[in-house]
TrEMBL record, chain A:
Its main location: membrane. Keywords: Cell membrane, Coiled coil, Membrane, Transmembrane, Transmembrane helix. This is Diguanylate cyclase/phosphodiesterase. Residues 424-557 form the GGDEF domain. PANTHER family: BIOFILM ARCHITECTURE MAINTENANCE PROTEIN MBAA (PTHR44757:SF2), DIGUANYLATE CYCLASE DGCP (PTHR44757). SMART domains: EAL, GGDEF, HAMP.
TrEMBL record, chain B:
The keyword Signal applies. GO terms for cellular component: ATP-binding cassette (ABC) transporter complex. One of its GO terms (biological process) is organic phosphonate transport. This is Phosphonate ABC transporter phosphate-binding periplasmic component. InterPro entries: PhnD, Phosphnate-bd. Keywords: Signal. Belongs to the phosphate/phosphite/phosphonate binding protein family.
Length: 831, 295
């Protein structure tokens, strides 16, 4: 049973109420019974006291009366004169019988004689004069004295004695009369008086000594001790509670007026309590039994009463555990019914709420699902973004085609290596594929790309050292090797790189023979910055190309000097262009048969103090390399074309002016435009113009160059194939190129007279050119024999010192004088 | 919470049962040396064995030197049940809570006996007055018939013992008093009549040897006293056993004291007479001669 349950509370309530009732009831009964009992005992006690008091008073009165009478009898008065033992004894016998309970009466004379009646044996040693009562009686004159209990001389029993003096007729003390009482006998009187079971009646002497008691108990004892005198005080009013021998008593006492003895009645407290308990026990036990029955009854009644509640609780527990299908159909008391109805309504509400919650929940779940999807998508996007980022990062640092590093990454790594490893050495190997452009041009970019991929793969397989291989341009690669220990290592790597191109590169069943030019620069030997080293490797690579390609070249300082020179040259050329330091010389070309001027080749002259005049080829080369050639040639075309307009304006026959065009210029996309602009600018008839090209122009980008030349040709400009016979001298060129003139190289002209073979080749060339409709110009004709030979073999035009050296513009007129009229001369003088 | 209450309830029940069932494992009996201690032990042995059998727990017997020793032993819980004399009982009662259980009913004197003052017949002593100036023997200051009752006699006669006799001695036992008188160590002595008769029977002394100068009133027989706190069941068992000993084991009682017919129940009030005499003699007297003397 839990403490805070209705069962407990109800039972406890009944129990508590029952307890209180029983307590009050019991208390009242107790008080009542107690009062009754006490009253009964007190009454009894008072009665006994009164009765016994009267009885003792009577006895003592009669005793004293007897003693008084005896004292006045004649016999005693005469006792001294006429002693008759017999008569005395009979007197004593007669008188003693009148005193109830007395044991013996004695007459004690002054001289020690004692008379006790006829039957008493008096021991010889007995002398009453020593006794207390005798002495007291003598002093008490005519009054009766009562002794304390003492042991009898004769019987050794405990006795008390009442004594009185008697006198002679003359008034002298004759002796003492005494009556002995056995306390035993006195007690017997009292023993018949009952105060309950354990109560008692006691006779006390004036000094408080017990004289008589029920069953002779405590005789001779002074039970009150020192309290005795207080006991007699009036304040107790004859009643008090006192403990005797560890037992509690209620005492009543009274004094016997005659002799001052005290009579005490005692009620035993314990007895009263015992009786109280006896009377009270049935009441109490009945009460407790009732209480028990009430409690049990209350418990079960409560149990029955709260059964519907319990049922409701169990229903609620079901609901608590989630079963909202429960319904209460309890019918009991109004309160319970109301509770039951409320419960049902509550369950209904909960069910409604649950339904709503469920819907809400599913909505939430849907939302969550959607959110989850969104999250997934976001994560996906993030992944893609990350991948893109990676890719962008890769693109930023890697070549998309080959997967090698790109320029940025390489430079970064190189810088890093230089900065971090001050004490180590490294090498930068600059690789340029020779003639790769041709593959792109002929096979298309797709094939070119595949070749590049294959090349990259081979690079990766070749270099064992810590390296970064990068593709930095179309066909340019850089391998950066860090931590090399000796030059030999670098040479070994470079050798290997050259050799990997010995194997043909195979892609899609096609194979190509490719070579590479390789430049090597070392750090810190060749520079302390990445840019410097890269530049120097680049220089070395160009040097390798110059040396004939398919080889490697380690950078040395002479290359640098060369470059410096070139740079200076470029600057000076630029200056020269600005300052108009260039001049054009014209070398006439003559019709071979009649030695009349056919045309002129414009030749560039540069009067620069710093430039060695003997190296015009170097200058051209330098100009080509730096790209200055385009500007220079534009300048040349402008002046030469203007000159062509002017000279043809005054000349009586057409004079063709030809200029040399560098292959570099032709490669320029705006080459045709430049030419056309120059013509427009000069206002010249294109028919007076000739462009001299070399075979080398056709080595690269043959198709596009050919197309450009064809466009030039369509404009009406004449095209000369220069230096024929010095290079490949392919007949293919003669046939396919849109050329008008073939210029036989000076080497042939120089040797044709000495070598029969060269002579024949020259003749064949002329004949061949003629056969395909081309005119032939021989260069470097210096001697008459040469002229004759060329004339013999019908070479159309000759050029050279035999006829005229290149002359400045002013002298051209002089040459023309020989062939033109005065008008021309006039004009030239003015100009 | 509930368990706690149950626990407390059980504990109190157990405590109650334990309190009730605390019965002693043995019982100790003390007897006064009416004779030599060894003989007392030997004579009592059949009774002891009988009691052990009847009560069902070990019974031990001790024989202290004197009455005072026995009272002390009971006071110190060393002795549960003592064979006291009437006077030693009423004296001990002032210190210890005691309960008289039984006393002997004798074949010749019944439940009471008497104190005698005996003298050799040839000594010429016939009255108390004749004892003046003679040598006198008491039994023991704790003895009723051997000291207290004779003292009451001397008191009633206003006799100061120390002045009246030429010499007084305590012989230690009734038998010794008899022997001391017989052997003329003293002229007269106080002795219980039952003891005198037994000694005379035992020692084959003829009636002609002694003369009783004085005989007291009836004295209630010596009580067998138990400490009041002794287990009630045990007390009952002991009382029952002793009440039936004359039927169940007459030999045992005969061997102990052939004069005893049987044991009968007694109560406190029977000894009121002795108490009263002690009262009259006064507390001082008792203390002087009995209690203080032995301390």
């Amino acid at each position: 049973m839990r403490l805070n349950s209705i069962k407990f509370i109800a039972t406890a309530l009944i129990f508590g109420l029952g307890m209180v009732t029983i307590f009050i009831f019991s208390y009242l009964t107790y008080i009542n019974t107690m009062a009754n009992l006490e009253e009964k005992y007190h009454k009894e006690s008072a009665l006994v006291l009164k009765h016994t008091l009267l009885s003792f008073q009577n006895q003592f009165e009669s005793t004293e009366k007897v003693l008084n009478i005896l004292a006045e009898t004649g016999e005693l008065k005469l006792i001294n004169s006429a002693i008759d033992k017999q008569s005395l004894n009979s007197l004593l016998e007669r008188f003693q019988k009148t005193v109830p309970n007395s044991r013996v009466m004695q007459i004690c004379l002054k001289d020690g004689q004692v008379y006790m009646g006829p039957w008493m044996q008096i021991p010889p040693g007995y002398d009453p004069r020593k006794k207390e009562w005798y002495i007291q009686a003598l002093q008490a004159k005519g009054a009766v004295v009562w002794s304390e209990p003492y042991l009898d001389y004769m019987t050794q029993r405990i006795i008390i004695t009442a004594a009185r003096q008697f006198t002679t007729p003359s008034g002298d003390i004759a002796g003492v009369l005494a009556i002995d009482f056995d306390v035993n006998t006195i007690s017997n009187v009292i023993s018949n008086s009952q105060i309950g079971e354990n109560g008692f009646v006691m006779l006390l002497s004036r000094n408080g000594t017990v004289i008589a008691n029920k069953d002779d108990y405590m005789i001779g004892e002074r039970i009150f001790g020192a309290d005795f005198q207080n006991l007699l005080n009036s304040k107790y009013n004859g009643e008090l509670d006192y403990t005797i021998k560890n037992l509690q008593y209620h005492l009543k006492f009274d004094t016997i007026r005659r002799n001052g003895m005290i009579l005490v009645t005692a009620i035993s407290r314990a007895e009263i309590n015992d009786n109280l308990f006896k009377a009270f026990f049935p009441v109490l036990s009945t009460g407790i039994a009732c209480l028990f029955i009430f409690c049990v009854g209350a418990y079960f009644l409560t149990l029955k009463a709260i059964a519907p509640l319990k049922k409701l609780v169990s229903l609620m527990k079901l609901a608590q555990n989630g079963d909202y299908g429960v319904r209460s159909n309890i019918k009991a008391y109004d309160e319970i019914n109301s509770l039951s109805n409320s419960f049902n309504s509550m369950i209904d509400s909960i069910r409604k709420r649950d339904k709503a919650l469920k819907e809400l929940n599913s909505e939430l779940a849907n939302t969550q699902e959607i959110l989850k999807c969104n999250l997934n998508e976001m994560e996906q996007s993030q992944r893609i973004l990350k991948a893109s980022e990676e890719r962008i990062k890769h693109l930023a640092y890697y070549d998309s085609l080959t997967g090698l590093s790109n320029r940025e990454r390489l430079i970064k790594k190189l810088k890093q290596a230089i900065e971090e490893n001050i004490n180590t050495s490294g090498a930068v190997i600059y690789i340029d594929l020779d003639n790769f452009k041709k593959i792109n041009d002929t096979m298309g970019h797709t094939v070119g790309d595949k070749v590049l991929i294959e090349v990259a793969r081979r690079f990766n397989n070749t270099v064992d050292y810590e390296n970064y291989t990068a593709r930095i341009g179309g066909d340019e690669f850089i391998i950066f090797i860090n931590g090399i220990t000796s030059m030999d290592t670098v040479v070994e790597v470079a050798d290997k790189l050259v050799k990997i191109f010995k194997e043909p590169l195979a892609t899609d069943s096609k194979s190509f023979n490719l070579t590479a030019s390789i430049g090597v620069a070392l750090f810190p030997l060749h520079g302390s910055t990445a840019e410097e080293i890269l530049k120097k490797a680049d220089m070395a690579m160009y040097k390798a190309k110059e040396k004939g390609k398919n080889c490697y070249q380690v950078f040395d300082e002479s290359m640098h000097a060369e470059i410096i020179l070139k740079v200076n040259l470029e600057n000076e050329m630029r200056q020269a262009l600005k300052a108009d330091q260039f001049t054009l010389y014209y070398q006439p070309q003559y019709n071979t048969p009649d030695k009349s001027i056919y045309g002129m080749e414009a030749l560039l002259r540069w009067d620069s103090p710093s430039i060695d005049q003997g190296a015009p080829l170097d200058i051209i080369k330098a100009a080509e390399e730096t790209g200055m050639i385009v500007d220079i040639e534009k300048w040349v075309m402008k002046n030469a074309f203007t000159f062509a307009r002017e000279i043809n304006a005054i000349a009586d026959k057409d004079i063709k002016i030809s200029v040399n065009i560098s292959p570099v210029h032709i490669m320029q996309s705006d080459f045709v435009g430049n030419v056309w602009n120059s013509i427009i600018e000069a206002g010249v008839d294109p028919g007076f113009i000739g462009l001299e090209i070399t075979e080398t122009v056709m080595m690269e980008s043959f198709a596009s160059n050919k197309k450009k030349l064809e466009e030039i040709k369509k404009l009406g400009i004449n095209i000369y194939l220069d230096d024929f016979g010095s290079g490949y001298s392919s007949l293919n060129y003669l046939q396919n190129l849109p050329i008008d003139y073939v210029k036989i190289d000076k080497i042939f002209v120089d040797n044709m007279l000495n070598s029969d073979r060269d002579g024949r080749i020259t003749a064949t060339i002329v004949e061949l050119a003629h056969n395909i409709g081309l005119k032939v110009i021989a260069e470097g004709v210096e001697r008459e024999e040469q002229y004759n030979f060329l004339n013999l073999y019908k070479c159309d035009i000759i050029q050279g010192y035999y006829m005229s050296k290149p002359v400045p513009r002013g002298e051209v007129l002089k040459l023309l004088k020989f062939t033109t009229n005065n008008c021309l001369e006039q004009y030239l003088t003015d100009w | 919470m509930r368990n706690k209450y149950i626990l407390i309830f059980l504990l109190s029940i157990m405590l109650l049962l334990w309190g009730c069932s605390g019965s002693p494992e043995k019982i100790s009996i003390g007897i006064i040396p009416a004779r030599e201690p060894e003989r007392m032990l030997n004579n009592f042995e059949p009774v002891r064995a009988y009691l052990e059998k009847e009560i069902g727990i070990p019974v031990t017997v001790t024989v202290p030197d004197n009455y005072f020793g026995l009272i002390e032993s009971m006071n110190q819980n060393k002795v549960d049940i003592g064979f006291l004399g009437p006077f030693s009982y009423v004296t001990a009662e002032k210190q210890i809570d005691l309960e008289p259980l039984l006393f002997a009913a004798r074949k010749d004197t019944g439940t009471s006996y008497h104190s005698l003052i005996i003298a050799r017949k040839d000594a010429g002593i016939r009255t108390i007055e004749d004892l003046k100036g003679k040598k006198f023997a008491f039994v023991d200051p704790g003895s009723t018939s051997g000291f207290i009752i004779p003292s009451a006699l001397f008191k009633s006669r206003d006799i100061d013992v120390n002045q009246y006799f030429s010499k007084t001695i305590y012989s230690g036992s009734h038998d010794s008093v008899v022997m001391d008188v017989l052997n003329k160590k003293v002229d007269a002595g106080a002795v219980a009549d039952m003891n005198l008769r037994r000694v005379m029977d035992y020692a084959k002394i003829g009636n002609e040897e002694f003369i009783a100068v004085w005989k007291s009133d009836d004295i209630p027989g010596s009580p067998i006293v138990a400490r009041a706190d002794l287990d009630n069941t045990l007390k009952e068992k002991f009382i029952t056993a002793m009440l039936l000993i004359h039927e169940k084991d007459p030999q045992a009682i005969k061997y102990f004291d052939s004069n005893i017919e049987k044991y009968v129940a007694t109560d406190k009030s029977i000894y009121n007479g002795v108490r009263n005499i002690a009262n009259i003699l006064g507390e001082e007297f008792v203390n002087e001669h009995f209690l203080q003397k032995n301390q």
